[in-house]
Design goal:
391 residues; alpha+beta; 4-stranded mixed β-sheet; 4-stranded antiparallel β-sheet; 10 strands; 51% helix; 15% strand
Length: 391
């Protein structure tokens, strides 16, 4: 780990420091820098490795089901994502999706659901996915058209989902569909859908600039037992937001991992690259850029781990998580761009570390709430606070 001073911040306990340092040493020995062209196979392998080594225990909640703790430790999740992201964007993705894909089961699943799914997810025996977005309903969840109709003790699920991470390789999907109890976001429910259930298919695999399993899903009279509904009927929006409240902060942590790796690469380049009889680091322009990069990373880290600490303390963190994700992802984009610039032509050569980081960071500014959505969330929370009478 390049710089572990931040682990001494008061946000962390001794177990968090041991976790981050232990994972860093394990990742250095076990996570390759490149994963080959078969991304599905690489992702399955990473899930298996993370499960076998015990790291996925932190992605689920409930010691009875193999979780590290009864409740998900947000700081631990963030430290794991930051550390993995420094080593490999795909390893971070594999860990994160086990958590996001099963988070609603941790929070709202019945004991039977938890026993059936969480134990397997935590061991790496089953791959999980979170299916919320649709072709015409991404940030605007209320526009969802995928529908589930109650028929006896089953729901019939019809419609499509898209941009679904782990689509095509997941064994289980947490799917959100309109059940009609109320208009807009209040008439949505959440369900566990097994990948082998009749009526479910992978409609399309989607290629993106930082390769990972991604797909469009289609449901045609897909029968889902009522017992696999998460929470009450019509509570789907609540289920989704509660899940995202845990893992949105961890997106900021992953961005931190990318940014820290970029700064490490930039420092190594600047101190060894010869230019005009000096090194690149001897020039004040370079020094100023490095200073901005380091300052931005620390500012983002403080926001990220403040949000994680507050959530672990039982406090509502909607505004703080949005601030962390917005700042960390936008800062990481700037830091990585600066690192690419320092590498010059080498910075855009395929599979160079900074070139990989440049592709990896872009999607983080979009998924789990785009930057513009985070701005709206922050403003909404500020205006709500201002409307509360003070006496």
């Amino acid at each position: 780990m390049a710089d572990i001073d931040y682990l001494n911040w008061p946000f962390f306990d001794g177990r968090h420091r041991e976790l981050a340092q232990g994972l860093d040493a394990w990742a250095a020995q076990n996570i390759p820098q490149q994963h080959g062209h078969d991304v599905d196979a690489a992702c399955r392998s990473l899930v298996r490795q993370l499960g076998d080594a015990g790291w996925l225990e932190h992605a689920i909640g409930g010691t009875a089901y193999g979780g590290a703790f009864d409740a998900i430790d947000t700081r631990a999740v963030c430290l794991i994502r930051e550390t993995l992201a420094r080593h490999s964007g795909l390893a971070d993705f594999a860990f994160a999706m086990q958590g996001l894909g099963s988070g609603a089961i941790t929070l709202f699943g019945s004991d039977e659901n938890k026993e059936q799914y969480l134990t397997r997810v935590g061991r790496g025996d089953a791959i999980a996915a979170f299916a919320l977005s649709e072709p015409d309903a991404g940030s605007d969840v209320a526009a969802m058209s995928c529908a589930a109709t109650l028929e006896g003790d089953h729901y019939l699920l019809n419609g499509e989902k898209t941009w679904i991470s782990n689509g095509g390789i997941a064994d289980l999907y947490v799917v959100f569909a309109r059940t009609g109890e109320a208009p807009g976001a209040r008439g949505i429910s959440a369900f566990i859908v097994d990948a082998d259930v009749p009526g479910f298919e992978i409609a399309e695999r989607i290629d993106v600039i930082a390769p990972h399993p991604l797909a469009r899903l289609r449901f045609t009279d897909c029968r889902v037992p009522v017992s696999k509904r998460l929470g009450e009927a019509g509570q789907g929006f609540k289920v989704a937001m509660a899940t995202l409240d845990i893992f949105r902060t961890s997106v900021a942590a992953a961005a931190l991992g990318f940014a820290r790796r970029a700064l490490d690469e930039a420092l190594a380049r600047a101190t060894t690259r010869k230019m005009f009889g000096k090194t690149l680091a001897d020039f004040q322009l370079t020094q100023a850029k490095l200073a901005d990069m380091a300052t931005g990373i620390d500012a983002a880290a403080l926001l990220t781990y403040r949000a994680a600490w507050q959530r672990d303390s039982g406090r509502r963190v909607t505004k703080e998580a949005a601030m962390a994700k917005l700042t960390a992802t936008e800062t990481a984009q700037q830091v990585i761009d600066a690192a690419v610039q320092m590498f010059g032509g080498l910075g855009v050569v395929s599979e160079q570390p900074v070139e990989r980081l440049y592709r990896e960071i872009r999607s983080l500014r979009i998924y789990e709430g785009a930057t513009e959505v985070q701005q709206l969330i922050i403003a909404r929370e500020l205006l709500a606070e201002a409307a509360v009478p003070r006496g």
